[in-house]
Design goal:
Length: about 700
């Protein structure tokens, strides 16, 4: 659509419709050979690559079409246009792949996650460059035809005049800006300062919370709860959850298994109705979780902790809530005591919600204390008491019944009705040495004492995991900082070691690496551009487009109330590769005009901006339209893709408005500095001779 509107030619529109599928098909081939699958990350890369892939074809087609419109034959236009724009496409491709190099070599878990994303995107860009340098000029030579302006209809002529008017007005505005270089440089400086300030202002996060239509629930009753009591409470809780209008079905599990280590805990998988079938208040999964949590508080004796199931997660353990904070110490009593105090403080923090832990030290254990004097008088031995208890509550195998096809083991135990409560112990009878049956209560007493149901270990030391959610409207960065503040205020003893786990730990690593990743992308691209242009100055001019892109991306995140997370950072890194295309196209043509036509720097950059205005608009609109599905798309799990689309759309809009004027001014400023430097260098030998 973009190509047809700007070039007004069906043949020119057909060419990229062949080039784009070929590039994507080639990418699928490399993905197959690399063992990649179609998943959220590769789909994001393919969606973004459509905007990148079509850019190379647009630049080539527009340049060839310009010569055709001037009256050259299609073959001559293809040869001249491809020769003129070939180096530009190579520069665009190599510099764009250079931006992806930090993503390819990113460490930690996040780096492994985005390895497929970076490779898929880099391969599609490389294949598109090959297609644009070979197939696209050939198709232009065959399909494009020169038709006089007068032979076209009124709509064609009207759109042509419209675009000519826009270019003329842009030229007038550019002249006005070039006459006010200092003011424009001040605007650039303000843009750079705002970008830096907004980076520290915008909320930091990790992965956005997705609505996959499934909620994971962890249930917990009192630590003295039996299996039967837990089953009753879990059933009552499930019935209450199913009353919610957004809930479609659920699965419920209790008992000790690989995930549940104690009888008083259980799990639930709550399946929500499709988004289209929910009411307006249930469109956000956070609203559903808060509503279900409020309604289930009326169910006595059991608590429910919920978090949405995510497509992309790095957690290696099941916890009650989304993020984890670990405490470990060789002294278990000290660890338990200080953990309880810390949890009390965290529950009062407004940045945190649903604070819980896996501390299970308040279970009840029955101790049979034998009165040995009374037992001796009645002829009851300790072995007899032990056998009576094992016969009643153990799993004593007393016989095996054999049949023709099977065998059945006979296990001795009390009937379930006689095993309820401590009374079941006192009602036992123990045989004495005389054969008489003596009540257990005559020779022993049963005492209940608190005991730990489970003790977790990390690195052979006892550990406790505190799990938490960020409060509504609070970013993960603010929640992590709140925990650090409360920990420092509590002054934990040195014997207790603390650390974040899972996503919270990876978030801290990503927060440290974000600036390094962006800086690495900029340095890598500067080196590549410096090699391509054999200059120290021109890469700086090209990279001057980046602050405006960063400003637009951060403003878009603030407007959309999104965090600066991993997906948004990747969007900013991709923006670095996209927006510098505008500067590359301007500078390439300006340098060519200076060398070939002998124009002054101002005349050369002015002419280059006017000639490249149309392809700059076309490539920017193509990339922007390619990012719109990510920003506006719905469906299951679409929240993961939103930050990428938001940053790219916001960055492209702001950078397009600013770089069309700041880049020429910076180019002209560097040209004037270089001229003064050469004049000063020429005067020094003359002064020495004098």
């Amino acid at each position: 659509m973009v190509i047809f509107i700007f070039l007004r030619s069906a043949a020119a529109t057909l060419i990229p419709s062949v080039a784009v599928p070929l590039s994507l098909i080639g990418t699928f081939g490399v993905m197959y050979l690399s063992g990649f699958s179609i998943n959220n990350l590769t789909l994001m890369a393919l969606t973004i690559s459509t905007g990148f892939v079509v850019d190379d074809a647009i630049v080539m087609i527009e340049n060839i079409s310009r010569y055709v419109e001037q009256g050259d034959s299609p073959l001559e236009a293809a040869l001249k246009g491809a020769k003129q724009i070939g180096f530009t496409i190579i520069s665009l491709t190599i510099s764009l792949i250079a931006v992806l190099i930090p993503l390819l070599f990113m460490g930690d878990v996040v780096g492994r996650l985005f390895h497929e994303f970076a490779i898929t995107l880099a391969v599609s860009i490389l294949i598109s460059a090959l297609v644009s340098l070979t197939l696209t000029p050939m198709m232009c030579a065959r399909l494009l035809k020169h038709t006089p302006e007068s032979s076209h209809g009124k709509l064609y002529q009207a759109t042509g005049r419209f675009f000519d008017t826009i270019i003329r007005r842009y030229g007038e505005a550019l002249d006005w800006v070039l006459d006010r270089q200092i003011a424009t440089l001040i605007v650039f400086g303000v843009t750079l300062a705002l970008t830096t300030a907004l980076y520290f202002v915008v909320a930091k996060g990790f992965f956005p919370v997705q609505d996959t239509g499934v909620i994971q629930g962890i249930t917990e009753a009192s630590q003295a709860t039996s299996f039967n009591a837990m089953a009753e409470r879990q059933q009552a809780l499930a019935e209450q959850i199913l009353k919610d209008p957004a809930v479609q079905s659920l699965s419920s599990f209790i008992g000790v298994d690989g995930a549940n280590t104690t009888l008083n805990s259980g799990r639930m998988l709550i399946n929500l109705k499709p988004k289209d079938a929910r009411d307006a208040a249930s469109k956000e999964i956070g609203n559903v979780i808060r509503r279900v949590a409020e309604s289930t508080r009326s169910v006595p004796g059991i608590a429910l902790y919920m978090q949405p199931v995510q497509d992309l997660t790095i957690e290696d353990r099941i916890s009650k809530t989304q993020y984890q904070f670990l405490l470990s110490s060789p002294n278990i009593e000290e660890l338990n005591s200080w953990t309880v105090r810390l949890i009390e403080r965290l529950n009062r923090s407004p940045q945190l919600a649903d604070v819980a832990s896996d501390l299970q030290d308040q279970g009840l254990q029955a101790y049979v204390e034998i009165d040995r004097a009374a037992a001796g008088r009645l002829g009851v031995t300790v072995a007899a008491i032990d056998n009576a208890l094992y016969n009643a509550f153990g799993q004593r195998l007393i016989s095996t019944i054999f049949t023709q096809s099977n065998q059945y083991r006979v296990v001795l135990e009390l009937a379930p009705a006689f095993k309820v409560g401590l009374q079941a112990l006192t009602n036992l009878y123990v045989p004495s040495s005389t054969g008489a049956q003596v009540p257990l209560s005559s020779v022993a007493r049963v005492v209940e004492k608190p005991a730990a149901l489970s003790v977790n270990h990390v690195g052979q030391f006892p550990s406790i995991t505190i799990s938490f959610n960020a409060a509504p409207g609070v970013s993960l960065g603010e929640a992590v900082q709140a925990i650090k503040t409360e920990q420092a205020a509590l002054q934990l003893p040195p014997s207790i070691e603390t650390s974040f786990q899972g996503a919270a730990l990876a978030f801290q690593a990503s927060l440290r690496n974000t600036l390094l990743l962006i800086l690495a992308a900029i340095v890598t691209m500067y080196i590549v551009l410096g090699v391509l242009y054999e200059s120290y100055i021109h890469p700086v001019t090209i990279l001057s487009t980046l602050p405006s892109a960063g400003l637009g991306a951060l403003l878009a995140l603030l407007a959309a109330r999104l965090d600066l997370g991993i997906i948004a950072v990747i969007g900013i890194v991709l923006l670095i590769g996209i927006v510098k295309k505008n500067a590359i196209m301007m500078i390439d043509f300006a340098l060519d005009a200076e060398r070939e036509q002998g124009l002054s720097p101002r005349q050369a950059i002015h002419q280059a901006c006017l000639l490249r205005f149309r392809p700059i608009l076309m490539t920017t609109l193509s990339a922007l339209l390619g990012a719109l599905p990510l920003m506006l798309g719905g469906g299951v799990g679409s929240e993961l893709r939103h930050p990428l689309g938001v940053t790219m759309v916001g960055g492209l809009i702001v950078s397009q408005l600013l770089t069309l004027f700041t880049t020429p001014v910076i180019y002209l400023g560097f040209a004037q500095l270089a001229l003064r430097w050469r004049e000063r260098g020429a005067k020094r030998p003359a002064d020495r001779l004098a």
